[in-house]
TrEMBL record:
InterPro entries: FA_desaturase_dom, Fatty_acid_desaturase
Pfam families given in the database record: FA_desaturase
The Fatty acid desaturase domain, residue ranges: 75-343
Superkingdom of origin organism: Bacteria
Residues spanning the membrane: 57-87, 166-186, 224-245
Protein name: Fatty acid desaturase family protein
Keywords linked to the UniProt accession: Membrane, Transmembrane, Transmembrane helix
Amino acid sequence: MTAKIRNRPLTASELDAFGNELDALRARTAATLGQADADYIRGIVKAVRYSGFAGRVLLFAGAIGGGTLWPWLLWPACIAGALLLALSKILENMELGHNVMHGQYDWMRDPQLNGKTYEWDIAGTSDNWRKTHNFKHHTYTNVRGMDDDIGYGLLRIFPEQRWRPFYLVQPLVAVVFALLFQWGVAIQDLKLGRWLAGKTSHAKMRALFRPVRRKILRQLLKDYLLFPLLAGPFFLPVLLGNLVANGLRNVWTYVIIFCGHFTADAETFAKESIRGESRGHWYLRQLRGSSNLAGGKLLNVLSGNLSHQIEHHFYPDLPANRYATMAVEVRAICARYGQHYNTGSLPRQFGQVIWRIVRHAFPSRPRPATAALQPAPQGG
């Protein structure tokens, strides 16, 4: 699918220098944060609010107006409303909620943008996301047995994952998972497999599920009961509009996240590879476990700037609107140290993801163990 990866082995001193250069870029960027960044994220808050309001108004107008006075209005207005509502949910999920919960805007001291307390418009709780994503995934990126995001417990994405007959149906499972992605996020930290295997007690599972159940009920009531009921006898088009908006958000989020981690050049790592991990090693692992998307400003915003997944994994707590500028220097640093900078168009990267899902549904041999994170001999 792609050209063979060419990564030059780095000596211990080169790894230190690699890490120091990337740390210096972080420090320079952090020193310039200010009003422009605050204005940007507040603009996103407004975009989420106004697009969501406009979407719901159009859904109501289409449902009520189309059902009474103007039948021609029904489907055009409902389709436009569902698309606007989907846009609002995508912006809130990707560019607002995800980035705020990383603490990217804590320096503003704005309680509405506090990374520790922000609750997003999705079935999963923010507290669980901060644990599974902010801590586990970003600390142990693509480390097998430590990063639960590798296949999300459902998919075999890498040949190093042990094959089971269940994986034969994973192309179908992947489609269902994309459509229901927010629900997968909601239950990820519950580890239902351990409970079904009797490794987690019923009492503990009830305690773990309690906050998840509250959040799920709140989302279901809001999107599939409260707003549809406001349309009275014309509740069905509003309900369907909400269902479509959530589905579009789910699929888009799935595509962006999978493109950021599961392309052909992305690597996984054994637990042993992070023992005594230096700062330079950590950056190198993040680089080799991440993938970028090339597509311009619109893609950057709609993806929550996860089109720059490499930069996000390097600097998860810096405002994501800075990643595009930082990427120029990050790419130059990688080139100086002979490291592959994994980037490509959305169709190209997602095509590689689809290939992985289909290919590794069948038995395959693990790739030869990589020495990527082992320092080369000094002077080598």
